Amino acid sequence: MATMVSTTEEALSPGSPAVAGSIRLILRLEGLAVAAVSAVLYAHTGASWWLFAALWLTPDLSMLGYLADVCMGARLYNAIHTYVAPAAMAVGALVLHQPVLIPFALIWVNHIGVDRLMGYGLKYPEGFGWTHLGRLGGKRKQAMQAA
């Protein structure tokens, strides 16, 4: 039976802005599916895997917004780490008959999918560590504090 709150040590406190339990697992598996499909589609474009490797971390440049302020950083990071912009790029490429843009959109989508799989979700303005998939580094921080 699915639960909204995990019973492990990483259980979220009441009112936490993140999902937990089986819902979190489903969202992470969804990230795996998106990453796998985008990689297969990328392979079919015939584009260079060197291009894929060179550009894969590009969406993380959006973290530079945190240098301005936490709220601005979260907004910029979230704008770049949703599927809306790469989907618009792909649709635009198809409509405008510019297939050269498709590999770029697929790299972007793959990055987002892998981020979701790894638990890096959309950020809340409370700080970089709070995401819609839970608090980043929860188990690691607890282990360090216990030692």
Q: Explain this structure to me?
A:
With 147 residues, the protein is mainly alpha-helical. The protein has one domain. The chain is built from six helices and three strands. The protein has a three-stranded antiparallel sheet, covered by helices on one side. α1 packs antiparallel against α5 and α4 packs antiparallel against α5 (102-118).
What are the salient characteristics of this protein?
disordered C terminus, mainly alpha, 147 residues, 6 helices, 3-stranded antiparallel sheet
Question: Layout of SSEs?
Answer:
Blueprint: H1 21-45, H2 49-55, H3 70-80, H4 84-95, H5 102-118, E1 123-124, E2 127-131, E3 134-135, H6 138-146
Antiparallel strand pairs: 1-2, 2-3
Helix pairs in contact: 1-5, 4-5
Q: How many β-strand stretches?
A: 3
Structural class: mainly alpha
How large a portion of the residues is in β-strands, by DSSP E?
A: 5-15%
Assembly state here?
Answer: single chain
Termini separation comes to: 34 Å
Provide the helix percentage.
55-70%
- Strand arrangement in the largest pleated sheet: 1-2-3
The Cα radius of gyration reads 17 Å
